[in-house]
Amino acid sequence: xxxxxxxxxxxxxxxxxxxxxxxxxxxxxxxxxxxxxxxxxxxxxxxxxxxxxxxxxxxxxxxxxxxxxxxxxxxxxxxxxxxxxxxxxxxxxxxxxxxxxxxxxxxxxxxxxxxxxxxxxxxxxxxxxxxxxxxxxxxxxxxxxxxxxxxxxxxxxxxxxxxxxxxxxxxxxxxxxxxxxxxxxxxxxxxxxxxxxxxxxxxxxxxxxxxxxxxxxxxxxxxxxxxxxxxxxxxxxxxxxxxxxxxxxxxxxxxxxxxxxxxxxxxxxxxxxxxxxxxxxxxxxxxxxxxxxxxxxxxxxxxxxxxxxxxxxxxxxxxxxxxxxxxxxxxxxxxxxxxxxxxxxxxxxxxxxxxxxxxxxxxxxxxxxxxxxxxxxxxxxxxxxxxxxxxxxxxxxxxxxxxxxxxxxxxxxxxxxxxxxxxxxxxxxxxxxxxxxxxxxxxxxxxxxxxxxxxxxxxxxxxxxxxxxxxxxxxxxxxxxxxxxxxxxxxxxxxxxxxxxxxxxxxxxxxxxxxxxxxxxxxxxxxxxxxxxxxxxxxxxxxxxxxxx
Length: 549
Ligand SMILES: Nc1ncnc2c1ncn2[C@@H]1O[C@H](COP(=O)(O)OP(=O)(O)OC[C@H]2O[C@@H]([n+]3cccc(C(=O)O)c3)[C@H](O)[C@@H]2O)[C@@H](O)[C@H]1O
Ligand SMILES: Nc1ncnc2c1ncn2[C@@H]1O[C@H](COP(=O)(O)OP(=O)(O)OP(=O)(O)O)[C@@H](O)[C@H]1O
Ligand SMILES: NC(=O)CC[C@H](N)C(=O)O
Description:
Number of domains: 2
Number of helices: 19
GO cellular component, one term: cytoplasm
Pfam family, one: CN_hydrolase
Shape: elongated
Number of strands: 19
GO biological process, one term: NAD+ biosynthetic process
CATH architecture of the largest domain: 3-Layer(aba) Sandwich
CATH topology of the largest domain: Rossmann fold
InterPro entries: C-N_Hydrolase (IPR003010), C-N_Hydrolase_sf (IPR036526), Gln-dep_NAD_synthase (IPR014445), NAD/GMP_synthase (IPR022310), NAD_synthase (IPR003694), Rossmann-like_a/b/a_fold (IPR014729)
Largest sheet: 7 strands, mixed
Bound molecules: nicotinic acid adenine dinucleotide, adenosine-5'-triphosphate, glutamine
Structural class: alpha/beta
Strand content: 15-25%
Domain CN hydrolase: 5-242
């Protein structure tokens, strides 16, 4: 055994489908770490994760093979472990290959394929069946891929196959409290097997998920010896002496609000950069949702790449215009004021005769939101700028938003934040001073929420207080509680039923909404796939009535 053994964790931000660019990035890390013994790259590093139905394309495997050939040819005595999809023409695997001195030393096939939440691996891959161990400087290294670690048996079998160190490659997405949950799982595997673990996660935003990095090395007792940063690329070499990882200075683990905020910044930045947008814009109303979205955008891209547009109508309060202006000035982004009165009046003049004698209702409110949407989409088209839509999870849950109005836009940075979390993150952001002014004007946080689409309108005219709404949404949509469970929490039957009806009635709206990063345990996209045409809500209502009877 030749110790110390140096194992490099390459926590890289790779791009789905960019096989050549990902390969170049991998080759650059290999060239820079020739003093290491083993360099470990993330799960499916070659394709990025998740490649989704790209995995059905036969040509993908040709490009992947060519890239792996180049990596193999570039290896010296430094071993390299890299994740990639693999096929023999009939069967497809999520694989991890190890190359050294221009040879393939081992290929391992993932044994546990996650098929829940945002994951669909059983749609593409067949399970591997064999633990894989290879020898490096006399030390036996056992290979694992992500989900393999989330139950005991794959790690146990790898130990039984002779492993002395476990190396796991991962694409483990962020959600609230994920870091501590993940650490518990990893620590349990170390304690069960009494083996140290090198855990390499990917980092970066990919459509609706954000990979948070937080790669770690744990010792055989499950204690963290090395920890890579949250939501940042990093390449760090861990040194093993006597099969014990040498402790490395640990970065501070961000607390809950900071960890979510940083994940949202990364998700937004990567969506904009990886899709090639020069800039973003948004409607800035003087309300908290657009204010938090603006702060995220400026933190992700810098003020010079962000434009905010205030579009007052007759119901817009003066303080809304003042606060929007003040925030744009503090954050250093472009700011315009474009009144929508002439457009709304013109639409109304045309529509009023066609409306006949039907009384005014939400139609008139939606028209204001739609005029704003048209203006913002015009600016987006003209300048090639991505329009950010500002809806939060509570509004999207109950459909308190206008199709082709404030739902216009290509990316929705806060769509998975319940309104209570919008407040929490806004308060958090204001603890980070910028030019001695709060990033979000205090009055925006303290004033009562209003869509300002009708005189003296408040959100709470149509909705229960947000803490109540959020708890019912969380209970019903994230934790699958029944009507009886929610009533037992102290909410009235009428309120619970009303919110559930609204949630189910608005699936069609959410399906037409822009993509945005997941931060809760269950988002309204891949995590919760409900039919649009769906009468289960009647079944629920009826069964609660009959239970009571
Ligand atoms: N199942 C289904 N499949 C496909 N389409 C369906 C549908 N059900 C209704 N529709 C269609 O959807 C349309 C209704 O949706 P939509 O036009 O959006 O309008 P709607 O949902 O009726 O109203 C929007 C609500 O959101 C509030 N709002 C608007 C803007 C901002 C805010 C805020 O605070 O942020 C709040 C506004 O005050 C109002 O209460 C109908 O025309 C209907 O035809
Ligand atoms: N006067 C306005 N000027 C610019 N944009 C607006 C204006 N009013 C609404 N919007 C846009 O439409 C979105 C929906 O806003 P609305 O005021 O109806 O409710 P909200 O969900 O409370 O959002 P916010 O808290 O940002 O006001 C806003 O976030 C903003 O992007
Ligand atoms: N890519 C995977 O296998 C990820 C699944 C795993 N449970 C995680 O979220 O970490």
